[in-house]
Amino acid sequence: MAERAGVLEGLRAYRMIAGMWVRAGMTYRVSFVVTLFGNLVMTGMDFAGILLMFSQVDSLAGWSLPEVAFLYGASVTSFGLAHLAAGSMPHLGRRIRDGSFDVLLVRPVPVLAQVGGDQFSLRRLGRFVQGGAVLGWSLVAADIDWTVAKVLLVPLMVVSGAAIFVAVFVAGAAFQIYAQDAAEVQNAFTYGGTTMLQYPPSVFGKDLVRGVTFVLPLAFVNWVPAAHVLGRPYPLALPGWTAFASPLVAAGCCALAGLAWRTGLRSYRSVGS
């Protein structure tokens, strides 16, 4: 009960902090709209690159444009949700270096909620909107034999993928408590991870695919469930039931990330600045 009360308190604090930053950001609405549009255009450049590639080839490792667009849309939409919720996590190293992290520790508010809600910005919605648009188009354009299970699996995949990415953000923040400045390492697994997932697993080496399936299970963001939706071979010949394992993988990742965060927080020593 105490742990549940702590979670609810953290969510309430996060909502209040995020709301404060939203109200501050909406003070300059023209700037907000311009920034949101710019963010949407910039994130769309990745898909423009995929379109350019398919203007020269008919398929990528046997995958058609709508199928690759499905991978892209699922990955970017999930990452967009996670980035909206936890996109401030990579800035933790800067707070540790300048000593402002110590201020968060003395406030009667869960530290993780403060770090996650810090500088919350709705302009990050641009990535989510752009990814969702591509995902929506791919669902219409791809040759999918729809069933009830596949219809339910698409939103489940997006939400579970977002939870997996949030767990990676939190685990990366915990690592920064030890390293004090490891934002680029964290970005390699978050931004780098979503970029990798935009392409079919068959274009990568088997060792890499094993790593993002059994070590850092990013494959469950889209590769594994997409195999069921699109009727494609499962990565590493996984059994069919794994297509529906993303929620369990996400729950496990969040539990491990929470443990890493609590361990890192207990070991923190002020930089003295």
TrEMBL record:
The protein, known as: ABC transporter permease
Spans through the membrane: 30-57, 69-87, 152-175, 208-226, 238-261
Keywords from the named record: Membrane, Transmembrane, Transmembrane helix
Keyword Transmembrane helix (UniProt): yes
Statement: the UniProt record of this protein carries the keyword Disulfide bond: no
Family matches, as InterPro entries: ABC-2_transporter-like
Domain of life: Bacteria
